[in-house]
Amino acid sequence: MNRLASKKAIVTGGASGIGRSICKIFASEGASVVVADIDEAGSEETVREIKNSGGVSYAITTDVSSEISVQNSISEAASLIDGIDIVVNDAATFIFGEIEDISDADWEKVFKVNVIGASNVVKHALPYLKTSPSPSIVNMASIGGFVAGRAFIPYNASKGALLQLTRCLAMDLSVFNIRVNSVCPGSIYTAATEKHIAFERADRDDFLKNAAESNFLKRVGKPEEVAYAALFLASDEASFITGEHLVVDGGASV
Ligand SMILES: NC(=O)c1ccc[n+]([C@@H]2O[C@H](COP(=O)([O-])OP(=O)(O)OC[C@H]3O[C@@H](n4cnc5c(N)ncnc54)[C@H](O)[C@@H]3O)[C@@H](O)[C@H]2O)c1
């Protein structure tokens, strides 16, 4: 239970869903975890759950689409947990739609959070990662980054960009021994699933049944099933893996 012993991690999007699960599993494996999310109440709840289990965690309200917010949060995080070894870029905004429905504002928002946000987190965490003995970055992409989905255009395009950001960072940051990888979930039940059901105006049971039918294992995934993939990539067990993406989708994209 000490796969991240004495590591210091910052997790964006840690107030909910997959990000919360990552925070809890990282803390249970010995990491000190900063939850950086725009949702203050959700972040505090993640911290409370970690502390109740004996872990070390802090919440810092952060809007990843604002570079100044990211810069301030990283600096505060590093002083709270005495450095940064692991960055997880999990925060995302979910903007779906077909091409005629998408505005410039939609494109700007989705790229500012899902791509530029992740890039700025890495940029400002870099001075700390450079001094870490085993630094690692994990970006939460999606199978939507490489397979098409109906009416998913801005979100899927942003996840494709995040996958390429991962590969380029893996190359550029290799000189500092910083590993950079992605996790690509398929259909995982979280608050984002409910947003998607509302967007589609779908019947909830039918939507979840169809999501389950779309993969070999015939069920929707759980946040912790993604969090364990992030744990592996963030840990020293993945010490020779960089620029890679790990798919967690029950076989949906095979
Ligand atoms: N749930 C799925 O089926 C699924 C599938 C593929 C990929 N993903 C990815 O997994 C990650 C987590 O998604 P989730 O399903 O847990 O959704 P979620 O809505 O539960 O979590 C997203 C989190 O991001 C935070 N966030 C949004 N905008 C932010 C901002 N500007 N600054 C800081 N935080 C912000 C939210 O407050 C929330 O806590 C996302 O990157 C998502 O794209 C999810």
Task: Describe this entry's structure for a reader.
The chain has 254 residues and is an alpha/beta fold. It has two domains: 204 residues, Rossmann fold; 32 residues, no CATH class. The protein contains eight helices and seven strands. It has a seven-stranded parallel sheet, with helices on both faces. Helix 1 links the parallel strand 1 and strand 2. Helix 1 runs parallel beside helix 2 and helix 1 crosses helix 8. It starts with 7 loop residues before the first strand and ends in a 6-residue tail after the last strand. The model has no long low-confidence stretch (mean pLDDT 97). Nicotinamide-adenine-dinucleotide binds next to helix 1 and helix 6.
CATH topology of the largest domain: Rossmann fold
Helicity, in percent? Answer: 40-55%
Content of β-strand: 5-15%
- The count of helical stretches stands at 8
Biggest sheet, open or closed, and with what strands and sense?
7 strands, parallel
CATH-wise, what's the superfamily of the largest domain? NAD(P)-binding Rossmann-like Domain
What is the count of structural domains? 2
Count the E strands: 7
Question: In what order do the strands lie side by side in the largest sheet?
Answer: 3-2-1-4-5-6-7
Class by alpha and beta content: alpha/beta
Q: Low-confidence parts, pLDDT < 50 over ≥5 residues? A: none
Order of helices and strands: EHEHEHEHEHEHHHE
The CATH C-level name of the largest domain is: Alpha Beta
> Which small-molecule species are bound to the chains here?
nicotinamide-adenine-dinucleotide
Mean pLDDT score: 97
